[in-house]
From TrEMBL:
Chain spans, region Disordered: 1-26
Organism whose genome encodes this protein: Gemmatimonas groenlandica
Membrane-spanning parts: 257-276, 288-305
Annotated protein name in UniProt: Glycosyltransferase 2-like domain-containing protein
InterPro entries, alphabetized: Nucleotide-diphossugar_trans
Keyword Transmembrane helix: yes
Keyword Nucleotide-binding in record: no
Assigned keywords, A-Z: Membrane, Transmembrane, Transmembrane helix
SUPFAM superfamilies linked to this entry: Nucleotide-diphospho-sugar transferases
Length: 322
């Protein structure tokens, strides 16, 4: 079981869930950690609601929620069928996912983010894909936040690797915000699920156990997250610091110092890699050109984060990633 203890729910939240008892069992559990507030979450949950109603794919939506009572009240009133799981504000996203996975009841468990917008056919696509011997399926995502250059630069910085299409079939890696798992596969890897680490560690463990990761480029979701320059710079720094701290947590001090020194070259390498990927994809070249100055800032924050994480540890960064 997860070592994250849910906070007592707001009045009325549990009552709302009791109305679910007479409904058929869910076909798909969807885990949506709430870390960005109501404005992002309402769009995500509304899209899931449409996906369920239009395709009649019975969903169980689980929302571990760390933003506070205002968001929880909105969720319980607007989406009474959602299973709301209040947690402390310092709970990390991997631990929030683990808590919801423990409470999921459907045979298949999908994990998305609170700023992911699913199309109407998404739920049925996931259910259809996870049949037979297929135990892990991952789709792709496209940028749905296209209003500003900041949003494009943030998307390129984080997701340039998804712009080059990969064929359907067995894959070495999958994304963490449009992926579905057989619940039995997650149970087999329970120790890793609860370790508080990102999905790449789970996916490595699944592959080690002989479980195939299936890429499905036809299962597409939208990534709709709006940023300011300072917000995304901070998030890149925090994510990179947490990532580097996790990578070197068992390393000797000389190894940590060497990793941090090497990470000083990351901004140049990342800038070249990201711009090259986007340009070669042939898509969004105009947006890329407009994003170049911001990309330089964002990859600098990324590199600084890895240096800091290697030399000084996590420092609470993981709990602030959203």
């Amino acid at each position: 079981m997860s070592d994250v203890t849910p906070i007592a729910p707001a009045t009325g939240t549990e009552t709302a869930h009791h109305t679910e008892s007479n409904r058929p069992p869910p076909m798909l559990s969807v885990v949506v950690p709430s870390v960005n507030g109501w404005s992002d979450l309402v769009a995500c949950l509304s899209a899931l609601e449409r996906a369920e109603s239009r395709t009649r794919t019975r969903l169980e939506v689980l929302v571990p929620e760390r933003c506070g009572s205002a968001v929880r009240t909105h969720v319980s009133q607007r989406f009474p069928s959602v299973r709301l799981l209040p947690v402390a504000g310092t709970t990390t996203i991997p631990h929030m996912r683990a808590l919801a996975i423990d409470m999921a009841t459907a045979p298949t468990v999908a994990v998305i983010e609170d700023h992911v917008i699913v199309p109407e056919q998404w739920a049925q696509q996931i259910v259809d894909a996870c049949r037979g011997d297929v135990r892990v399926v991952g789709g792709v995502l496209v940028n749905a936040a296209t209003d500003s250059t900041v949003d494009w630069a943030a998307f390129f910085c984080e997701y340039s690797h998804v712009l080059t299409p990969r064929p359907a079939g067995p894959a070495e890696w999958l994304m963490g915000n449009n992926t579905a798992y057989a619940r039995t596969a997650l149970q087999e890897c329970a120790e890793v699920v609860h370790a508080g680490r990102w999905e790449n560690v789970l996916h490595d463990e699944l592959r080690r156990r002989g479980i195939v990761l299936w890429n499905r480029p036809d299962i597409v979701v939208g990534h709709k997250k709006h940023y300011t320059v300072s917000e995304y710079s901070e998030q890149r720094f925090l994510y990179a610091r947490a990532y580097a701290a996790d990578r070197v947590r068992s390393s000797s001090m000389p190894s940590r110092l060497a990793y941090g020194a090497a990470a000083m070259a990351l901004p140049v390498l990342l800038y070249a890699r990201i711009t090259s990927r986007v340009w070669r994809s042939g898509a969004h070249r105009r947006e890329l050109l407009h994003s170049l100055p911001l990309l330089a800032l964002f990859v600098s924050a990324w590199g600084l984060g890895e240096v800091t994480g290697a030399w000084f540890g996590d420092g609470g960064a993981m709990a602030r990633v959203c």
